[in-house]
Amino acid sequence: MEQSKIPQATAKRLPLYYRFLNNLNHQGKARVSSKELSEAVKVDSATIRRDFSYFGALGKKGYGYNVEYLLGFFRKTLDQDEVTEVALIGVGNLGTAFLNYNFTKNNNTKIVMAFDSDPSKSEGNVGGVPIYHIAELEDRIGDVKVAILTIPASEADGITTRLVDCGIEGILNFTPARISVPEHIRVHHIDLAVELQALVYFLKHYPLDEGL
Amino acid sequence: MEQSKIPQATAKRLPLYYRFLNNLNHQGKARVSSKELSEAVKVDSATIRRDFSYFGALGKKGYGYNVEYLLGFFRKTLDQDEVTEVALIGVGNLGTAFLNYNFTKNNNTKIVMAFDSDPSKSEGNVGGVPIYHIAELEDRIGDVKVAILTIPASEADGITTRLVDCGIEGILNFTPARISVPEHIRVHHIDLAVELQALVYFLKHYPLDEGL
DNA sequence: CATAAGTCGTGATTAATTTCACAATAGTAT
DNA sequence: ATACTATTGTGAAATTAATCACGACTTATG
Questions:
Q1: In the CATH hierarchy, which fold is given to the domain comprising A8-76?
Q2: Which nucleotides of C are covered by protein (CB under 7 A)?
Q3: Where do the CoA-binding domain residues begin and end (chains A, B) (predicted)?
Q4: Which residue does chain A place closest to B84, by CA atoms?
Q5: Which of A99, A164, A200, A203 to probe the B interface (max B CBs under 10 A)?
Q6: Over the Cα atoms of chain A, what is R_g?
Q7: pLDDT at B211 over 50
Q8: Cα B111 to Cα B185: distance, rounded to the nearest angstrom
Q9: Which of A57, A78, A85, B140 could share a disulfide with A112, CB 3.0–4.6 Å?
């Protein structure tokens, strides 16, 4: 918890850096410059250097960064060694997408259980993840602290309340509803319809160049 | 294209405001204050007032905002009357989720066609949207200017090149790959794995309170 | 060894966004 | 009418993030 001074904008880019460093490593590249990385992840090179610098001097002047070293560093920083268990609520199309995906490669998160209100889905198993009926939420969730919400908006509030009572700490909400939670619980909203509309708005109103 | 001075951060919130105003309207509410709206969309009320103020004085002091008026205003501003056609590339789980969803309510975007490389999927039809084989991309896409990419990362570059050649203007990229496009094309990346990892990182390193 | 080329780390600057805080005004109640 | 209350719109301040630009250092080359 020491490095709480890292800007949120930087923190959000860390997983991205991590994945690309992993790619480079698999490709057998031993070193990389902020300029090269910049082209790969589409983030300004000065921003990358600044981001890295919050963690200390990780590179060498005139050389760049050693891929393996950097990777090892981020592995620790991003807690890649310790897997965070995640519960998925709602096994519709979107939920199924997550289950099949299940963040297989270089990832520190794992969906360990899923819930659905449809009895024909529960008792099943998708991508090796057991699916339970939503009624079993409280019994099954154990000490899982992170949930992905891929349910209809109308159910968001009810499920959220139950998750909060189960001691959940973070929710990734794909529901269009903006859910209310106690202050100490973190919610990230990803609103697919809004994202698409925003893209369309930018296309019409913000003439060429300038990525998001 | 007149109001190019609207901050990007504001522009990204507009679709969200629009949807909640619609909800309020359906509920029969005639007026709303920035404070109420703030609670609903989880955006600071001063930010909401500031956002609205870029479009002029839309509210009344001591009263708030007239829901219907505001809604009418945003409908025009967000081009809600004119539907933007969208093509979906990749009818896997995630792609299917989009097709079934298809942004039915209060939306100015519509997926009008989908493509997949699996012949057993193409020639089909999901949620009323025709699915073509990816080989037909150039023949079928017509003047659709926006594409959603829900394909494996390995195919991202190839498909992107073809889309660019077809004259695409905006891409909503769900692929983990950071695609390269000419300057005048807008790409928004939504990286599900990164979002989840970022949430986990925040949980571990940023103690309670403060939503993203 | 000396020179050239490349690249980091960061102070300083600029830009973007959020938040504070309050005067002005509209509505409401008596 | 008058007083009271609610709420906007916005100047100013604060915060956060991105970018510039350059000194210092590393490696490569002849």
A1: Arc Repressor Mutant, subunit A (1.10.10)
A2: 5-11, 16-21, 23-27
A3: 79-178
A4: A200
A5: A200
A6: 20
A7: no
A8: 19
A9: A85
Q: Is the CATH number 3.40.50.720 carried by domain A84-194?
A: yes
Does position B10 have pLDDT exceeding 60, yes or no?
yes
Domain boundaries of chain A, sorted by first residue: 8-76, 84-194
B33 touches strand D (CB under 7 A): yes
Name the phi and psi angles at A183, rounded to 5. Answer: -55, -30
d(CA A36, CA A73): 19
Is the CB of A184 less than 8 angstroms away from the CB of B209? yes
What is the CB neighbour count within 10 angstroms for residue A54? 14
Q: How far apart, in whole angstroms, are the C-alpha atoms of residue A46 and residue A58? A: 14
Q: Average per-residue pLDDT in chain B?
A: 91
Which of B:48-77 have CB within 8 Å of A? none
**Lookup result for tokens 């950097």:** A70
Lowest mean pLDDT among A28-32, A39-43, B77-81, B195-199: B77-81
Share of residues in chain B with pLDDT > 90 (%): 80
Any idea what the Cα angle at residue B14 is, between residues B11 and B16, rounded to 5°? 135
